[in-house]
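Here is the promised in-class demo. Please do not try to memorize the tokens; focus on the logic of going from shape to residues.
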């Protein structure tokens, strides 16, 4: 046993037992890096080598994306430019043309869009997917425009006069998704619809859970959600009628007629459900089967009304 230990100790001190490169006097960091990258020896620096190898292509990709994004953000100048509507955006969002130039808007989206000036000076009407619209601009000036069904779609068009330089064109930044308070009926109506569409199904689900687990707290929550839905829905219907009055000519006549009367009926139905639910809540009782059936019918009516609204706005 002692002889074997002595032989091992002597062998460990033999310089031939190690690679010559590791016996040279080099900094410890250099030796560890060599062991990591060249010799494949496990070392704390090996993780650093792998991380650097992974970060290099990511950094290149990030810088490329930033450069491409900066190019897309610059205003585009052309004689007869084409603006593409895709993914709820005008691309490019800002463009410069000479007076007398014709601009074409192509709808390559899955939704119908409009090209509507903010000042009302021009309006394309609904442009269905796969269709386009053109307009010739004769007078110099700047025109901001948007899509009526999708107010967050905004862009800017600059028309240059004959002696105007490109550098003196538009000022300001390209259109963004910056939030602004709702001011028009097509902005108010979807916001209010979301509350009603969420509260009534949740109230029905809460009552079902209360019956399943025999918990009164679920029924109490259902009562309050039914009350909130009954309070908000009249405002939703009012915003819908306001929208119909303001822009009904640009919306499909049959769809808007069914949509508005179904919405008005939903107001009456939800108020009736809230009154019925209040009588149940006052007795600390569980909702009856007829009540649950009527609530389920109201939920299905909301789903159908929402599909009509989607077809009306998105052209499907």
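The designed amino acids, position by position:
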């Amino acid at each position: 046993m002692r002889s074997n230990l002595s032989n091992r100790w002597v062998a460990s001190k033999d310089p031939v037992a190690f690679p010559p490169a590791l016996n040279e006097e080099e900094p410890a960091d250099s030796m560890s890096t060599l062991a990591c990258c060249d010799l494949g020896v496990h070392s704390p620096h090996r993780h650093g080598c792998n991380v650097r190898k992974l970060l290099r292509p990511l950094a290149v990709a990030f810088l490329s994306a930033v450069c491409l994004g900066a190019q897309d953000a610059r205003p585009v100048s052309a004689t007869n430019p084409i603006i593409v509507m895709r993914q709820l955006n005008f691309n490019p969002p800002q463009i410069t043309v000479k007076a007398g130039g014709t601009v074409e808007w192509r709808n390559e989206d899955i939704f119908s869009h409009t090209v509507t000036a903010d000042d009302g000076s021009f309006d394309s009407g609904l442009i269905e997917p796969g269709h386009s619209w053109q307009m010739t601009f004769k007078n110099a000036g700047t025109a901001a425009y948007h899509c009526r069904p999708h107010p967050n779609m905004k862009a800017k068009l600059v028309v240059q006069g004959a002696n105007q330089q490109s550098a003196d064109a538009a000022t300001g930044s390209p259109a963004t998704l910056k939030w602004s308070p709702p001011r028009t009926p097509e902005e108010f109506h979807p916001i209010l619809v979301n509350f009603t569409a969420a509260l009534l199904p949740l109230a029905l689900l809460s009552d079902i859970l209360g019956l399943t687990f025999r918990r009164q707290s679920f029924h109490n929550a259902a009562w309050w959600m039914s009350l909130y839905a009954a309070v908000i829905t009249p405002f939703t219907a009012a915003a819908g009628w306001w929208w119909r009055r303001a822009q009904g000519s640009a919306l499909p006549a049959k769809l808007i007629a069914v949509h508005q009367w179904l919405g008005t009926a939903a107001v009456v139905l939800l108020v009736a459900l809230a009154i019925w639910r209040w009588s149940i809540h006052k007795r600390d009782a569980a909702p009856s089967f007829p009540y649950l059936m009527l609530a389920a019918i109201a939920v299905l009516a909301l789903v159908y009304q929402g599909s009509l609204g989607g077809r009306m706005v998105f052209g499907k």
